[in-house]
Amino acid sequence: MNNSKLTMNEIGRKIKEIRKKKGLSQEELAEYATVNLRTVQRIENNESEPRGKTLHLICKALDIHAEDILDYGKHIDTNYLIYFHLSVLTGIIIPSGNIIIPFILWMTKKDKINGLKEMGANLLNFQIVWTFFASTTLIIGTFLKISHLDIGPGNFLLSLYAWGVLYGINIILPIWFAVKIRKGKIGNFYPNLIRLIK
Is residue 143 within 8 Å of 122, Cβ to Cβ? Predict the structure, then answer.
C-alpha cells in the first residue's frame, strides 16, 4: 500500500467517522450529497470505493476537502498553522527570516498537517515576491541617494516610505491571517502573485 493514501477500508471508516461526528444519518448524508443511500452504505461497509464525482459530492455534504479523507496520517493542528503564519515576523530581526523560518516549518510538517502543504506554498510564494519588491525599493532609493541622481525632490524619502509601507503590510498580514485561523478559517490567504513553489 502507498503510505500516502488510505485503503478502501480506511476511506469508508473515515467517511463514517466524520458523518457521525457531524450528527448525520446515512440517509441524511445521501440526501445532502445527492447520491443513492445504497452507495453511502456500500462505501461505509467497505464494499466499494468512492471515486471522482461521488467522493466530491460526499465531501461537499460533509463540509470537508477530499484531502481530509484521502491523505493518510495527516491531522489538524491549528496552533501549528498559527505559528507558521507568525513565523514570517522573524524577518524583522533575521534577514530573509520571513522566508527561511516558514520554509523550515513547512518542509518539516507539510505532509503531516491538513492544509499546510497548499497554505505553505501560498505563503512562501508571496514572501519571495514581497522580499524582491521590498529589497528593490530600498536598493533603488539608496542608489539614487549615493549617486546624487535624486531626480526629483525627495525620491530617496519616497522610496523609504514605499519600503515602510511594504514592511508594514508584511507585519499586519501574518497577524491578521493567524487571527483568521484561530477563528477557524483555513485557506490560502495571500494573493497568488507568482507560483515558484508548488
Answer: no
Q: What is the 3-state secondary structure (H, E, C) of the chain?
A: CCCCECCHHHHHHHHHHHHHHCCCCHHHHHHHHCCCHHHHHHHHCCCCCCCHHHHHHHHHHCCCCHHHHHECCCECCHHHHHHHHHHHHHHHCCCCHHHHHHHHHHHHHCCCECCHHHHHHHHHHHHHHHHHHHHHHHHHHHHHHHCCCCCCCCHHHHHHHHHHHHHHHHHHHHHHHHHHHHCCCCCCCCCCCCCCCC
From first to last of its 198 residues, what are the pLDDT tens digits of the chain?
333 344 555 778 888 888 898 899 999 999 999 998 999 998 888 888 777 788 889 888 888 877 667 665 567 789 999 999 999 999 999 989 999 999 999 999 987 888 888 899 999 999 999 999 998 888 877 777 776 655 555 666 777 888 889 999 999 999 999 999 998 887 788 888 787 887
**For residues 94 and 101, what is the distance between their CA atoms, to the nearest angstrom?**
9
Are 69 and 101 within 8 A, CB to CB?
no
Instruction: Give the contacts of 19 (CB within 8 A, at least 6 positions apart).
Output: 26, 29, 44, 62
